[in-house]
Amino acid sequence: MLLCATIFINYLEEKELKYTVNVDDDGDVIVDFPYQGKITKCIFTGDDGQYLSLYQIYESVPLDKQAEMILLCNELNTAYKWVTFYVDDDSDLILHSDNILCPDCADDVAFERLLRLVNIADECKPKIMKTLYA
After folding, report:
1. 3-class DSSP string for 52-104
2. Measured between alpha carbons, how far is 31 from 112 in angstroms, rounded to an integer?
């Protein structure tokens, strides 16, 4: 398994947090981290797993709300530096973050970026729900 992913998984184990792990056909390690009814995928790639991409499918966006949601994504992308918001081809609102790790700090940095993403998701929830359901 990739070194940075192993270090991160050991950190989650030490904190006694729930997660699942899969390794895809390319050797990439995918750690699924559940929080508040949503799953954040932590995808480790590269020789040592030094490239970390975080993805959270936040909510499905109805077709009649896509334009409003894209405008909200633009607003949120200017307000939040570490997370990107977009509506994908499946009409899902996605929160995304790309990061570079080193083995010396993979546990702390990966966990901090994961926490940052889920905290931003919590902060943005009122605006997202208003856009989807108002």
Report:
1. EEEEEEEEECCHHHHHHHHHHHHHHHHHCCCCEEEECCCCEEEEEEEEECCCC
2. 15
Tell me how many helices (H) and strands (E) the chain has.
Answer: 3, 6
Cβ distance 20 to 32 under 8 Å? yes
CA distance 47 to 64: 43
Report the C-alpha gap between 60 and 47 in whole angstroms: 34
| pLDDT tens, the chain, 134 aa long | 999 999 999 999 999 999 999 999 999 999 999 999 999 999 999 999 999 999 999 999 999 999 999 999 999 999 999 999 999 999 999 999 999 999 999 999 999 999 999 999 999 999 999 999 98
Other CB atoms within 10 A of residue 59 CB? 19
